[in-house]
């Protein structure tokens, strides 16, 4: 306030500076510049939303979306997928005994319960097959659960190893020793073991080789997850820590392969990437096509052998094993294709409707209406 | 005992405190600092007073943080957000990383803080600058004035001020280099008044003629405490000898004013620094809350309710979720801190968590964004060229920054008349003297000429007289740069850069002296009389005859002009040395201030009186004595004069000779015969100029003397004894002078007719003389009424001759009143009233107050915009009504209800009667008409009187009746009457009444009000209204200071309201709605997710995105749109004021729109959530890899939503959208690549990078926004097609007109079609009815080609086949070819033959009309006619020079090559009748050659066709 009023005064009589400069400033009129911006006359595009103008957009959308949708739908349909639920909540199911058993005293280290589920592939899975395990009703996205981890510890930070983050509570310490890996996510690691056997018509089984590497994100495996002190002698490194409460084996015994042990165990890494929705699947193994002639999984009978450890009855969850081939757009999901087709059709239909409207009413407003 | 003593001690303490307080509050006494220079600081009695150092900064380095935060937390939203951020620090409920959650709040707070720091720093710098300005302060030790900084000045210091210096503090004037002991100051910076004000040296020092010596000053000044009243200063000065002198505002120089025309002034500082009146007057900008903001706050409240509902829902959900597991806690239900929570407790905790998660619903950045947008809007309003007044080099000022959008919602305008509607440039029009009227016809003609010239003024070569004035003004300007050591007389600058126009303008501005006001053409009859009179007088004087022998009429004439000349406060300055008063004499005399003085002056012996006086005032110095003596000695026979002095009617030779001598000394000013008059009010100047036209010129004015130049008589010095200034209660002013010719003491009074007429001496006797007088009186009264009827301002002039005894008697009481300290005003008033009695009427004047440019058009436009215009004026009823007619406020066709009541009861009956009358009128009309008319009156009410009689009632009410009507019991009735009148005119209303009316309307009718005024009497009204607009005109700045917006001219109100108001409103309304939508939409995403995460408060959107989404990713486009979006172009808005209804009815932001937006937000978030949900259902996707696409989708959807809502896309819009998206991806990329272990829990390392390689991501990005926006888009499309609002229709038209308009942008001002006169040609209903009833065939839709009418038949016959080849884009251009009869006739001497084919063409065309195709739509859409109408008023881009080019392309080219060159006549339908006639004629007699104008209805077809493509 003062500033403005006084600067005006100064112009008005106070001798300041050389006459030349002050003259020029004083002669400056307050007249605003006549520029397009200041006069709000910037060239502008004015879209007008009337039936006539937007018609093409609807048709174009329709014409683009429908083919995309069809493409997606076909792709999705070409994906072969089989899902085996082995929870065993019902007495008739093969794994009922195991689930029943785990219900009782899951914490007690008992001999692992094994059960077998048979299924039949009516069509061969030609290309590489992804083997997933699926859980439902498992809220991996629970707010406190998601937080319950220590990324520094998982990244191999020694100090975090012995002094995990507070976020890991209440799975931070056990028996006065820091838990490695700490937190609820790690604690609830899925620990069923799945094995797949091809059952020859003669009844003999042959185990299908399951590849356990390459199932995690490359960046997770190589950047985010690190064993403390490198990959050698994990036992020593983890000596000051204790395994998570629910685990049967310590983290350094997850695998024998040093490149897949400790924190960089891929099953562990996959589990640590918390699922978005309560029903989810996680990649378990890969079944690679051996050669170009034989399919990855031939038609026939298979047996899934499960070492049943993971209790899901507490939250009425289901456990599934899924075998699926994969396409450029991921797993089998017809939704996107259908959605595209639907939206495309709707747009096309609306386009037609608008065309009618335009012809019927569009002119009305722009033609001279005569009052009664 | 102890208690008692304690009590007594307390008592004592209290008493002392009281005492000191009392002393404090009573007054301030100022001593000279020099007396205390040797003492310690504690002993200086002035030590308690503020120093002159000013500090307007709010903060210091230390206090900034706490103080600023404290201030910011006054805003409730900030407290809310800080509370939520702090809530995040509680581990039990926290949802985000606490530090991160604090970020937006901190950001918002720091942005505001930085703004505050910057403002404070600017204040600090300006303070520094001001504090370090130099000033001469007397130093005791060195016994001279030394340069000091302003900040070092203390109360009690002596300062020496030189010409053109700014006064550093409030200074009591003790000495002036001016021989009259005056000092002139310019107070423009304080009150904006540009005329010079006189200040007088304190009385006891005025007689002192030696150099003022501060050391010897030992008086004590007692004055009131610092206050902010610029026009009041009371106090007295106590001299050592105990003498007291009263002080008034005439003795004080206020800080911030500039010394002019005075080489040097010395004074003692009374108030310094913050206690000066200037600083105390300095209030910050006003804070008002706009209507839109109030509405918004309601919706913010709804948002809070929605938020709480959502949180509650989630809490319950979570409780149930926990409860369903019972005791078996699943592995994923991590209990906080190892404690198991019961479902209820976890629900409670979750509630708080959800508040944190959903906090975004209450838009944190809303307030900041609104502020930014408003500031930018203000900037654009400031920058508008159309609101810039070149004449005064002033532009619109927005003083209130936060009510710009209110401008778009105004419903009632209350306007002052004088200076607002009129120019406040008073022009002498006519007068009556001694009962005889002098009509001044030539003068009237001259004025009419000016009126015509006004519009073309710009192109005029400056007239000789303006040229001559240029010099003066530039020299005046150069004052600014002349170093103050230079003498004030050397201000002339050689190289004049100022344009002549500007110069003339400035001179107009400064001195009420436009050529129009100055060059008065005298009435020959009166001039002759005046000459006669002067001749006779001079003869009589030479013969030594008694002057009273003059015939009464002639003596009245001369007295009349003398009164005009001297009964004012006009100061004379010469044009070459502006602001430098003309010295008319050598003699120094002080005005009559004491009885002794009076006796001295009016005793026979002058010499003795002189000696007496010198002995009386010991202070009189040798110098002055010598001067006095020399002046007396120079006269031939002093003794003789002295003897003669007492003899009335004898000429005083000394005076005469003196005045003849003066001619020699008079400065160049007389060379061009032009003196500049500086008047405080324009009326005064007008009268002085009028008198000058009759050769009775005011030549000089001094405090005690006025010099008047008369023909034959030369210069006469009137000894000025008293001036009884004008005040609003007396409504008159008087001067008491000694007449040099008769030596009588004469009182000249000038005032409002009502004030003077009552004071005229009654003539009880029946002798001829008094009969004659009575006749004069009644005649004059008649003429006065006549003048008022003509809309002139009337003033009566009267005189009174006092005998010495009377005068002495009066003087005694008057002097008492003057020296009183308490109730001085009242006493002075009474004293004045005592004097102004038994006057003799001389005559009356009629002054014209011209309407400002464009006022009728502006009022018409505003009214068309649905605004009710009320005029509240203090003028007489007749004058007011006349002005109202001339500015089209009242229409001659409409009935005027006049309410004049003498009592409450009468008023009540009157109101009842008028109410009945109005009701009966309404009933008489067929109901459908009245309803319809009410609905659509915006476009049709005025068109035809037969249709709009109901709406065309005018109400005139005078101040007295208004006072009754505003009474509680009657106000409802009054409002009911006033509401049903189209225009309301309140005359003779006081400022208080004005504000009461505004308040009444505002509160009772619940409407948005705007008050516009220019003077101090409008201030209260301006302050009461929702929006106050001040006109920065000639009456000072008080109205501007009180206003929210200040405009240079009334006509700018049109653009300010219709364009800027509309824009500001629609922009802000849309932005606010969008804000609510945006936040709701984003928050709803999280809400849906809660169903899939056990209501645990989890969010799949990364915290960073969540928190910065509003602040960074989606904020820029909406700001750009909020600042730049234009729903309709300014041209259209001006052409169709009806569009303003949009804002009045709050159509952009209605309560239901908030809910529609909310529903849309929830729908859109559904799409953005569930499409990815289903796409990723039962897959191995992890939370944040799933959440990131959702965020991206939401961003796209939100931006595209804005895209749908944006009406105009400039490159800035595009840039901001691109920038937003780029920013999001850049941030996402950097963030996702930066740290593999940070940012728990999302830990988004490489997520985005991986997503970019996933085709699914792109597929979602394409599909989701389409689905999400489909309903809104479809709604907009259908609404735009089927039920377009007027605004939308206009926009649709705009688009096609726009390319053509852009051609003419450059010459907006001169575009004829922008001229409001020409473009309001609504198709009146009767006309349309005629057409339809006549079953006329109209061009059908099936025939897109229209009857082509070339405006120039000789070359421009366009046949239909040609029009087919024309680009569709130009069809609308083609369609608007109009015929102008004049141009046709002019250009077509051979039209007979040439036009025949063309007319034949028409016939053919008409015959092909298909009646079936003619759609008679029963649903009348008036806007369509406006649309049509609009086209008809579109200019044609044709120029007569290019008549040979018939195609539209050529027209375009032509137009481009001749921008703005289209002659008005050829591009216009000249009137609405023209249109109608043209239509009829065309259809009736198509062979006629002078088809006036053809507007084909089918021209719209062309537009439709274009739209289709």
Please tell me about this protein's structure.
The complex is a heterodimer of chains A (372) and B (1509). By secondary structure, chain A is α+β, with helices and mostly antiparallel strands. Helix content of chain A is 33%, strand content 16%. Chain A contains twelve helices and ten strands. Chain A has a four-stranded antiparallel sheet. In chain A, strands 2-9-6-7 form a four-stranded antiparallel sheet. In chain A, strand 6 (193-199) and strand 7 (205-207) form a beta hairpin. In chain A, helix 3 runs antiparallel to helix 12 (335-366). The termini of chain B are far apart. Chain B has 1509 residues and is of the alpha+beta class. Chains A and B meet through helix 1, helix 2, helix 3, helix 5 and helix 6 of A and helix 4, helix 10, helix 42, helix 43 and helix 46 of B.
The SS-based structural class of chain B is alpha+beta
The oligomeric status of these chains comes to heterodimer
Biggest sheet character of chain B: 9 strands, mixed
Topology pattern of chain A, helix = H, strand = E: HHHEHEEHHHEEHEEHHHEEEH
Beta strand % of chain B? 5-15%
Question: Which descriptor suits the 3D outline of chain B?
Answer: elongated
Low-confidence runs of chain A: 1-27, 365-372
Roughly what percent helix of chain B?
A: 40-55%
What is the radius of gyration of chain B? 39 Å
Protein name (chain A): Cell cycle control protein
Keywords (chain A): Cell membrane, Cytoplasmic vesicle, Disulfide bond, Glycoprotein, Golgi apparatus, Lipid transport, Membrane, Transmembrane, Transmembrane helix, Transport
Subcellular location (chain A): Apical cell membrane; Cytoplasmic vesicle, Secretory vesicle membrane; Golgi apparatus; Membrane
Pfam families (chain A): CDC50
